[in-house]
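Repro:
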Amino acid sequence: MIWSVVGGSGFVGSAVLRALTDAGEEARPVRAPRVTSSADTPAQVLAEADRQAAIVDRLAAELTGCTVVINAAGAAAPRSPGSPELTGANALLPVLLARACAAAGVHRLVHVSSAAVQGHRPVLDESPDTAPFSPYSRSKALGEQALGLGPFTTLEIVSVRATSVQGLERPTTTALARLAASPLASVASPGTAPSPVSSVDALAELIRTVGLHEGEVPRIVLQPWEGMTVRSVLEATGGTPLVLPAFLCRLILRTGYGVSALLKERLHGSIRRVELMWFGQDQVAGWVAGQGIALPVRVSSILEEAGARRRGPR
């Protein structure tokens, strides 16, 4: 097998490349083209892709001979406002890649999506149902939906919905360690809700597993839960979270989202992070559990190391 990782220099892409090379796979990075889009619907995304034949042809030439292509490119910007750059990276680019893969004879495209496409749902699952709540989550949902329209001839497309992915080199993880050590560290009573916090190592291994799987893979695969609760996430970094009444947390969130709506959703991403810290989000066991696949469980150790780095040498 020959693998290509589009966006291989990024946070997720570099982890995928490491996982592949460590397993002895032949993998190469591919630079993602920068594209913009003003689309609001999947049909508009496909129409814009029709006008990007030159980019598709160039990508197809780079991907010829590959068995599996990983799309780890995109804009990981949960708190950013909507923009043509955001929609281009997260919605238009996946379609251009799918067309290029189909033209190059690639067997499977593994597209790295986000569980954020299902928004505030109490339980994340692997259905095509989405409930985006912010410019970022809408752009990711638009990418999934456009890929689902196809057709892309014999190409098999799998969207892997990553959860709240952590890694020592990720600013989000550093910020979480700082938050855990601050007076703002808190959870909604009783603090036992499951947290979707996960490790980049598990995500990379999941992507490799999906790429290698010989049988049929569903169109959407959810990254599995790594067993942490909202309280244990903060405690793993060395914090001692305050337990707040759940009704008070809900009142604060409703007020925050209301204010953010008046500001054209500029605060939605930040408020959502607080909501996840307080209430977490449950998820189904999904395809991975059904296949009996064991993935590494490393997010706790990542958070512990992030907390140790924040405290510094003693």
